[in-house]
Amino acid sequence: MSSIVQRGGAAQQRPALKERLRAWWKGVDTDVPAQRVAAARSRLSRMQPTQSDVVEPLALWESPAMRVAQLAWGQGCSKPGGTEYLLDLAKPLGLDENKSVMEFGVGLGGGARAIRQAFGAWISGYEIDADLARAARQLSVQARVEKEVDIACYSSQDFAPRDGSYDVILSTETLYQIERKEDLLIKLERGLKSRGQIVITDFVLGPGMSADDERLKALAPGPAVFWTPSRYTRHFRERNLDLRESEDITANVLRALDLDTDRRERIVTSGIPPALQQDY
């Protein structure tokens, strides 16, 4: 089929598709000037953003992955479940303005700031990922709670919480990234006050799953050590800690992680600058 392009009242016929393909292969320009101008204008019009296409630029502290996580789980959140998940964990713990809390694996700090707002507790947050730690601290500064929600980057060499410092220690989906888990757990336990409480949720090995399973590599960018639930139980009992509750929350986490294709595409196109969308 041939197409007709109108310019200045004179019609000019475009070469047939077969001829254009042959000319393209040989490096010959078969488009007449009017066709090139029309094509350029068409491309330009497609490039002009509409109101719905405009995406807020990434903040100086923000990466595309952080933007996607926040669009999926809420402002200042980088983990499944968002602030509601951490608040649900914190509700039975009797927190108030006289209590001190450590969150190990604080992410972007949205949950820690929500606990501060809801209960008035003082929060010390530690994050393994240095970029997340910097971003979390910046968000606390922006919220003017950097003293109440004090966030730092975790270093295995320097991490030494003062004995008997915390009423509550929370850690969600983080400990699997720690190779020397026994050492860290002992440090956390020593940091608890008398009758203090520690709440841990983590990715663990399910029945019949090997620590060498290739699927586990997708969960952690670096080294990872996955325990079984029974190993956690054994550790706490050997340390003479009172294990109040152990629950399988896999279904809840899977629901929080479930982003169908349409929703994922909406998140990317609405929240990620176009030049970075190809990575998602």
Short description:
With 280 residues, the protein is α/β, with parallel strands linked by helices.
Protein topology:
Blueprint: E1 4-7, E2 10-13, H1 17-26, H2 33-47, H3 64-73, H4 82-90, E3 100-104, H5 110-119, E4 122-127, H6 130-142, E5 149-153, E6 166-172, H7 181-190, E7 192-201, H8 229-238, H9 250-257, H10 261-271
Distance between the amino and carboxyl termini: 37 Å
Mean pLDDT: 79
Number of strands: 7
How does the helix and strand content classify structurally? Answer: alpha/beta
Q: Give the oligomeric state of the chains in this entry, treating copies of one chain as homo and distinct chains as hetero.
A: single chain
Number of helices: 10
Side by side, the strands of the main sheet go: 5-4-3-6-7
The percentage of residues in β strands lies in 5-15%
